[in-house]
């Protein structure tokens, strides 16, 4: 397999392409604006939050929470409000360039409720592969995901019934932050060498294992644009988030999870990035109670390559390695693969048309001593078929199993 630009910039999860559609907000009792730039009206002002969730195919805004507790609203219907969303690139698009997943459309409200605090929650239509609602866009020329600028507009169509008896018409809404509890659980950090990373800290005490997640090519920085957000590593897919779930934390007995972000893409210069990743591992281990005998590395596509690279450069650092749909051919010689002593479990899908699964994952499995491998025919989860390259979805769900042992349990046993 020749390594094309497409291969180098692989792993663009979460960047489903879409067309910008005109949004037609219906007339109502009050039309309001979002993005914190609301104007007009001297009546009731209500702030709102965008609630997001990282699906297997990338992060989507799944609901909007209105700060209405002080208004004491009663039960409402989905038709009380209309939600319009506009998503645009955070950086200028060069002539002839293209960004996928921008949109300008109405978000159907599928349900409306008042939560226990008295805030109104508008559930929005969302699903894997559904256009509109995503938080990331894919820059074609850079091969990168970027966090879109989101501008939500809410229109109130009917007066809001309240427990005080007097209906309320809200004159202005002000858009607040994007909230994703899983993503927000990871703190922001910068290494001594300037490499950014996100870190999840377990609630349990004592020395705990550390899982290092290495992202795909689409989640690196977009330099020289100066765009280095430390966000897309957690929003494009569930690779790192999976290890922070309650199930994974139970299996590992509580684990730190660190997700470094490349300043470009790992394949660009694995020899240069390896010590920078090692520096982050050492920094986290020094500042926290990490069990140095239980440090694991996993990654997808570009990160799958980098996971293997790390075990060739630092043969005694990791207790286990999980390279997923990684590029090996022409990058890691067979002689280096044959010297890997780190327990290794490789994962890919045979319909991967981005990184040749036979020339890379299957070949690596044949060369790495005592390695394990799980080969899928397709990438299907909850009835939805994803691109064949996205086999990291299975690892993020602890699906690979050999002889009755799932991949997270296998990792946790290595030391």
TrEMBL record:
Q: Which GO terms describe its molecular function?
A: serine-type peptidase activity
Peptidase S9 prolyl oligopeptidase catalytic domain segment(s)? 280-332
Instruction: Give a GO biological-process term.
Output: proteolysis
Highest rank taxon of the organism:
Bacteria
Keyword presence, Signal: yes
Give the InterPro entries listed for this entry.
Answer: AB_hydrolase_fold, Peptidase_S9_cat, Plant_Biomass_Hydrol_Est, TAT_signal
Keyword terms, alphabetized: Signal
Look up the signal peptide feature and give its range. Answer: 1-29
Q: Name one Pfam family in it.
A: Peptidase_S9
SUPFAM superfamilies given in the database record = alpha/beta-Hydrolases (SSF53474)
Q: Which PROSITE patterns match?
A: TAT
- Put simply, this protein is called Peptidase S9 prolyl oligopeptidase catalytic domain-containing protein
**Source organism:** Actinoplanes cyaneus
